[in-house]
């Protein structure tokens, strides 16, 4: 399976996301922009004259731009299971890193929407007592999500700490 | 000594002796007899609201009835409300077991709440004005996720205080029989705010003056431009509300503020009309915030606020000299010396392009026990989180900050708050992220247990 980032970057084992999420997001992008481009071209071509139909191509530019952006965003997502905490890193322009010590986890959630299920994807979300904790890993393979959930729960119990 | 004598008197009373049989199923108790009166207010209020909305119809309907029938209708309403109040009182029970406070209520929709005593974040005994006249009090337990319903209103004042002492003793880990007999723990006063100081501090608050100015100017402006009296009143009311809560409201609730220390934790007593007695057990404070408004700095006064998970109370000391406030904070966060924290300002290079002028206000200090971040230039705020309370650590960096080589470190705590250290050099922030996660993990190990007396 294709993965985004692999190998050691000096801070534990970074693991990237599997390719499914990128495929899903790009497919959604295509499904939105191509009909929009066709619709715009048709409308302008019929009402304002054939040369104006070329404006529909601006949607294709948006598609190309979004295609690249989604790829960069997908590559930026990665996580590392370290000895005592989980590290999640994401974002291209606005970068963010979250560290959640295993002992602080209150709940590990695996969610999967209908579209995600269709593509064999699942998300893992970690909840701590702090509402601001935004530790979510989207687009994992279901087996990996379950493995992660079980491992995090196990580690959380072993290192459990109160408030 | 007086506290112990009081405890014996309590133990001799019929109420306090009841739960001594610990092994047997817990003895259920009822609330004070005056409670139905308070419960009946809810439907009365609803009826009055409906009547006010449909005033015309009711007028027409009532004028067709004779005086006797009107009287009967009124009587029927009173009886219905009275029965509702009585039944809701009759079906509300509470019991204290070894580990829980159980509240059972509801006539049609039954509800049973079991509140774990070792999870108590704070206990409040409040006496609203009318309740003070009647000699009753309200007891509220702050537990994470608890609702407003989980309060005992009303109890006889003496009983409320005894129950608080018993709950705290059990939460602290004393044996059940001991817990009843123990009575209220002795307390030692740490600080008391003089009313004169409180008044001066409120007068020196810029935001109150700003609210007053806005409250005067905005309605005049609205009157000038629209000439509509209703619009003027509509703009004035929220302004007056803000002004009230910022000045007179604060004066009423922060009047005669006392901070005392006891083995059960910190005691806060305050209020002019409504008296409140709050108890925060040891080790429950998630964040302490020290606020220094501009006009207070000449007098070296500070205001101390605190965050406790699941609790609505936010103020620890409304106004005090810096030294006195630091002594109180040292009690709340043991082993923390605020005067010794060495704050490091954000670097001038870069910072001044990200947050012009105001960058000077940002500073950070990390000691062996706490993470402290400062911000603000006019009103300076310093937020202090013990490492043991940190739930997760985050680092964020926007594009412009990256160009300037800066990053932000956020520290999330259990009271739903986040302390942010802004404008830190990127390399320092990255190192801080790792170090902070490690400190959060290790410092929990030597924190006090939830049952603080065990």
Q: What percent strand of chain A?
A: 15-25%
- The number of strands of chain B is 21
Strand content of chain B is: 25-35%
Helix amount of chain B, in percent? Answer: 40-55%
DSSP summary, beta strand count of chain A: 7
Task: Note poorly predicted spans of chain A.
Answer: 1-10
Radius of gyration of chain A: 20 Å
| Terminal-residue CA separation of chain A | 40 Å
**Overall morphology of chain B:** globular
Largest sheet report of chain B: 7 strands, antiparallel
According to CATH, what is the class of the largest domain in chain A? Mainly Beta
Which strands sit side by side, in order, in the main sheet of chain B?
7-6-5-11-10-9-8
In total, how many domains does the architecture of chain B comprise?
2
The oligomeric state is heterodimer
CATH topology of the largest domain in chain A: PH-domain like
* Tally of domains of chain A: 2
Major beta-sheet overview of chain A: 4 strands, antiparallel
Strand order of the largest sheet of chain A: 1-2-3-4
Structural class of chain A: alpha+beta
| Secondary-structure class of chain B | alpha+beta
Query: Given the structure, what is the number of helices of chain B?
Result: 16
InterPro entries (chain A): YdbS-like_PH
Protein name (chain A): Membrane protein
Transmembrane segments (chain A): 27-46, 52-70
Keywords (chain A): Membrane, Transmembrane, Transmembrane helix
């Amino acid at each position: 399976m294709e993965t985004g980032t692999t190998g050691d970057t000096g801070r534990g084992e970074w693991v990237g996301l599997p390719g499914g999420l990128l495929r899903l997001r790009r497919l959604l992008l295509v499904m939105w922009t191509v009909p929009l481009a066709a619709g715009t071209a048709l409308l302008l071509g019929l009402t304002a004259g054939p040369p104006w139909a070329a404006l529909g191509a601006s949607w294709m530019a948006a598609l190309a731009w979004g295609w690249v952006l989604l790829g960069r965003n997908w590559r930026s997502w990665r996580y590392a299971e370290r000895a005592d905490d989980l590290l999640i890193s994401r974002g291209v322009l606005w970068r963010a890193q979250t560290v959640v010590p295993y002992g602080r986890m209150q709940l590990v959630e695996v969610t999967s929407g209908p579209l995600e299920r269709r593509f064999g994807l699942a998300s893992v979300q970690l909840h701590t007592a702090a509402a601001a904790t935004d530790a979510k890993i989207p687009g994992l393979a279901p087996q990996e999500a379950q493995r992660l959930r079980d491992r995090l729960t196990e580690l959380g119990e072993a290192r459990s700490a109160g408030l | 000594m007086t506290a112990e004598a009081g405890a014996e008197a309590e133990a001799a009373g019929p109420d306090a002796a009841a739960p001594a049989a610990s092994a047997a199923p817990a003895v259920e108790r009822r609330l004070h007899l005056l409670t139905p009166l308070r419960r009946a207010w809810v439907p009365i209020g609803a009826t009055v609201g409906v009547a006010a909305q449909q005033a015309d119809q009711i007028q027409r309907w009532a004028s067709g009835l004779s005086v006797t029938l009107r009287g009967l209708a009124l009587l029927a309403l009173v009886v219905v409300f009275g029965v509702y109040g009585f039944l809701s009182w009759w079906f509300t029970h509470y019991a204290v077991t070894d580990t829980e406070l159980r509240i059972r209520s509801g006539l049609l929709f039954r509800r049973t709440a079991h509140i774990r005593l070792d999870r108590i974040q704070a206990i409040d005994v409040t006496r609203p004005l009318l309740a003070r006249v009647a000699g009753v009090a309200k007891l509220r337990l702050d537990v994470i996720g608890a609702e407003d319903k989980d309060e005992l209103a009303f109890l006889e004042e003496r009983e409320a205080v005894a129950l608080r002492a018993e709950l705290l003793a059990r939460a602290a880990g004393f044996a059940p029989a001991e817990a009843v007999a123990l009575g209220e723990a002795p307390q030692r006063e740490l600080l008391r705010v003089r009313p004169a100081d409180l008044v001066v501090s409120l007068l020196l608050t810029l935001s109150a003056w700003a609210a007053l100015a806005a409250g005067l100017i905005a309605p005049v402006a609205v009157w000038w431009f629209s000439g509509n009296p209703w619009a003027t009143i509509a703009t004035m009311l929220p302004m007056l509300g803000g002004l009230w809560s910022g000045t007179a409201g604060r004066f009423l609730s922060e009047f005669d503020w006392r901070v005392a220390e006891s083995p059960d934790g910190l005691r806060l007593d305050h209020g002019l009309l409504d008296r409140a007695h709050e108890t925060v057990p040891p080790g429950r404070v998630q964040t302490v915030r020290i606020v220094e408004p501009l006009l207070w700095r000449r007098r070296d006064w500070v205001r101390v606020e605190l965050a406790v998970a699941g609790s609505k109370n936010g103020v620890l000391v409304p106004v005090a000299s810096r030294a006195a406030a630091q002594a109180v904070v040292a009690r709340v966060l043991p082993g923390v010396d605020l005067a010794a924290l060495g704050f490091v300002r954000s670097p001038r290079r870069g910072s001044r392009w990200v947050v012009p002028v105001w960058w000077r206000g940002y500073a950070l200090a990390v000691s062996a026990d706490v993470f402290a971040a400062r911000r603000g230039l006019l009103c300076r705020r310093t937020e202090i989180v013990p490492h043991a309370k940190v739930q997760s650590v985050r680092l964020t960096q926007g594009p412009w900050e990256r160009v300037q080589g800066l990053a932000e470190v956020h520290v999330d705590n259990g009271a739903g708050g986040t302390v942010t250290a802004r404008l830190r050099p990127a390399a320092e922030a990255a190192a801080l992220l790792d170090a902070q996660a490690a400190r959060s993990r290790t410092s929990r190990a030597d924190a006090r247990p939830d049952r603080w007396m065990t």
